[in-house]
Amino acid sequence: MDAREVGLGLDFCLRVGEVLLASGAGAADVTATMQTLARHVGLRGAEVDVTFTSLSMSYQRTPEEVPLMSTRMVRQRAIDYEHLTRVDHLVRAVLRDEVTLKEARASLARVVSSGHDRPRWAITLGWGVMCAGVALQLGGGPVVVLIALVAAISIDRLQMWISRRRIPTFYQQVAGGGLASLIALAASATPLDVDVSQVVTANIVMLLAGIGFMGALQDALSGFYITATARGTEAILATAGIIAGVSGGLSLAYALGAGISEIDPGRTDLQSLGMLAVGSALCAGAFAYASHAPRRILVPIALVAAVATVISRSVELPGIGRTWSVALAALFVGLVSYTVAGRMRVPPLVVVVSAVVPMLPGLSIYRGLTLLAEGGTSTSAGLLAMVTAASVAIALSSGVILGEYVAQPLQREARRLESRLAGPRLVGPLRSPARRSRGKRRPEEVSSR
Question: Could you read off the pLDDT of 157-205 as tens digits, one per residue?
């Protein structure tokens, strides 16, 4: 391969990794996918370095030659399961020699430049349905569910308006949290029987950084500690923005003399198992829809989430702690997601992340931070809530990954990956098929034997 071919191969691998990382894939999956692609296009021994904001790749054929290195920055980050799925299919097509490198580069350019098949108002409605499902989990009645839906739609539109002006995510979270509390307080001023705590916490779920925290734990378990630290910092900042926004909304209401009852921060009372399952299914399915997941996977995700949440609640009722009950439910998600994703032709990450959304410790994090902000006798309760939230998040991540370890048939090709890639594959093919040319082995393969 001459320098031009090497450059095209490096650029293609980096662009694939950029799309995967920006769409929510873990650093281990991104690294393994890039290494597999590089080896298949002839760049054996290429080195890959993935961080939270950049990807680097270098190749040196012999020690006598000058190494070639290329870098790409991840400037935009958003959960986009449509792009994730399409790029995953493209990677598999390249590994099966169904497309050439030139054709693959053109297909990748079309993926990243084309829009989505869903209008933006439908995505906003999806976030509203998600929060309505959370309201059902919290035991809210029809009025609370409706208000939560309207508030979520308003929050999404407000954040979209702020994002277009390139304002950092922290301030978007502050604005969203403040709007959630103001809408809940406005509803409480009406003659309607509205539990303000339920309205606030139902809308907080779409803002909380629970998913980012889970991604940070996944990277930490896979050995990518720098990326895990960066994702954890992002999650903490986003959560702090929510608390600041909610507190600011309440302070404004008190300053205006609004007569409201004291809000129970982070109230998480749950209804019967039937309504709990329905709320979990709505929450997970709507989240997947709002994240541009393919339509064929929405119903399976809703069913997996409903069963997992019922398992978590049923195990918790006899007296087992919430941490272990959530871990068992996450283990179930990890066990079934690989099979479900394979049948529906989507990466397992799409099923895993969406199905655990109803069990994320976002409400516990919100409760703990709010109690800590109150100070006094609430400090110890706030610390206990934060410890519980951290343990639940670890249980979710470790349970899902353990389930994937058991479910995925790790073959000899998967074990050849770099030793630091300790986690199972949630994105990308498990196998690294040897490249064939008209059914014959390449000369270097024959000589190596």
Answer: 999 999 888 888 889 989 988 888 888 888 877 777 777 777 787 788 7
CA atoms within 13 A on the CB side of 298: 17
Q: In Å, how far are 148, 185, 231 from 151, measured between CA atoms?
A: 5, 11, 27
User: How many other CB atoms are found less than 10 A from the CB of residue 417?
Assistant: 17
Q: What is the pTM of this model?
A: 0.85
CB within 8 Å of 231: residues ≥ 6 apart: 52, 212, 213, 215, 216, 219
Distance, in Å, from the CA atom of 89 to the CA atom of 111, rounded to the nearest integer, reads: 11
232 vs 127: CA distance, rounded Å: 24
Q: Where are the domains of the chain?
A: 3-114, 120-406
Place of tokens 């998040």: 393
Closest CA to 336 of 305, 314, 367, 299: 305
Residue 171 has, within 13 A of its CA and on its CB side, a CA count of: 9
Euclidean distance between CA atoms 385 and 379, whole angstroms? 10
